[in-house]
Amino acid sequence: EKQFPDGFKFGAATAAYQIEGGWDEDGKGLSIWDNFVHEAGNIVDDSTGDVACDSYHKYREDVAILKDLGVDIYRFSIAWSRIMPNGTPNEINQAGIDYYLNLIAELLLHDIEPIVTLYHWDLPQYLENLGGWLNPQIADYFGDYARVVFEHFGPYVKYWITLNEPLATCLSGYGGDSLAPAKGLVGDGTYQCAYNTIKAHAKAYRIYEKEFKQEQGGKVASNIPSPMFYSKTDSIEDIEARERAFEFNVGLYAHAIYRGNWPQIVIDRVANRSKLEGYSFSRLPQFTQEEIDYINGTFDYLTLNSYFSTIVEHTEEAPIGTPSIYSDQSTLSSSDPSWPTSASSWLVSDPPGIRYLLNYIQEKYNPGEIVITENGWSTVPGILNDEDRVTYLKGYLSNILDAVVEDGINVTGYTLWSLLDNFEWSQGYTQRFGIVDVDFESPNRTRTYKSSAEWYKRLIAARQIVD
Ligand SMILES: CCCCCCCCCCCCC/C=C/[C@@H](O)[C@@H](N)CO[C@@H]1O[C@H](CO)[C@H](O)[C@H](O)[C@H]1O
């Protein structure tokens, strides 16, 4: 049997808003998610993350579970407004700092390495009032936040992720309305947000590089979510459509960091359509040469979230009308009917896709090291015997193993999404991604292993795919 290499690290992932609760405790400030969930109609089951898994109080129990599973790494995020209530450095909340120091200490005590995300979608509301990710100064605010994080936690953390899935923030939060702050600015907002998130990431990277790296010796990267994109046919049109889909969804956030500037196809198409729409400038902001040089190369590794595959085909150019990133992109996406479906409309299982994708990403960005920071499966609530999740994970991990052993891709870690059932954003508690069930009806938020947790524990112990 093929073995995962010795240095390969297994783990699990969570995010602050989805598990912590304690939304207004001990001096924490409000985030855009605290406000979004309290507005009726935004979350399908009208639930909130006010308590969620109550990990703010139960983190020791979470770490005990991680220890029992035998993981090497745990990916979690810091809630910006828990340590800086309004997002600015003029007020630091010591109780928030202590919470994360205690969590990290508990992890290290059990030989579990933290991998820490600075921003997993919970922007301090005060910064949103200033324009959020559309405010050109947000990179400076993020830089100040990053500095506080590195100062306090840097001695204990070696792997940093600046922003989780900027694609989701920009496309669904500012371009669309399914994530907070639901701005719905599909033609302009997505690009301005992308521009600012890239500059914020680069700022944090450069601060670390200049002020902390020598002493702390850690690695910093942004986060890239990507499905495997297949072209529907071998026609030139569909192959080009597949490239466009990749560049408009992945390249928009990765190209400037790994190769310099936006992808050329995005520059050309948005400029062209903007002109036809009557704009005197491109809706895609331009990087100056100085910005390109500052951003290019701001990575020490690559973190990849990947769950599914999609089939892309060319579609006729949309008539000039309301500006939209979708018309700029001009592609259609579909699924293969043979791919098993989950409780989430977008999540289908295509295990070989992850191996193709890893090869594609390696060739395109040559990042040196890749950590898969999210991959997982959703079910409806209440299922402890989650055989479909085990089948999915087995297929994906087996293909990841082949990518490492057969293809020589330097994937050094894997943090499964998710350790616990948790608050699944606008889907509330209707979709469950945990390998550990959480009883959201009980005040104790009782945790119970699913079959997948038992299976993952055996896999980690064996360091090979197990039945
Ligand atoms: C990555 C998307 C590229 C778009 C390519 C077009 C293909 C069309 C299909 C559209 C589906 C879009 C919905 C995608 C959603 C996921 O990528 C997103 N939910 C992943 O975010 C992480 O998901 C976890 C489980 O949902 C978890 O909630 C975590 O917090 C997120 O980081």
Automatic annotation (TrEMBL):
PROSITE patterns: GLYCOSYL_HYDROL_F1_2 (PS00653)
GO molecular function: beta-glucosidase activity; galactosylceramidase activity
Name of the top EC class for this enzyme: hydrolase
An individual GO BP term: carbohydrate catabolic process
EC id: 3.2.1.21, 3.2.1.46
Gene3D superfamilies with a match to the protein in the record: Glycosidases
InterPro entries xrefs: GH, GH_1_N_CS, Glyco_hydro_1
Catalysed reactions, semicolon-separated: a beta-D-xylosyl-(1<->1')-N-acylsphing-4-enine + cholesterol = cholesteryl 3-beta-D-xyloside + an N-acylsphing-4-enine; beta-D-glucosyl-(1<->1)-sphing-4-enine + H2O = sphing-4-enine + D-glucose; beta-D-galactosyl-(1<->1')-N-octadecanoylsphing-4-enine + H2O = N-octadecanoylsphing-4-enine + D-galactose; Hydrolysis of terminal, non-reducing beta-D-glucosyl residues with release of beta-D-glucose
Keywords from the named record: Glycosidase, Hydrolase, Signal
UniProt keyword annotation of ATP-binding present: no
Pfam families: Glyco_hydro_1
Keyword Hydrolase assigned: yes
UniProt record similarity statement: Belongs to the glycosyl hydrolase 1 family. Klotho subfamily.
PANTHER family assigned: GLYCOSYL HYDROLASE, LP05116P
Protein name (Swiss-Prot/TrEMBL): Cytosolic beta-glucosidase
Species of the source: Dendroctonus ponderosae (Mountain pine beetle)
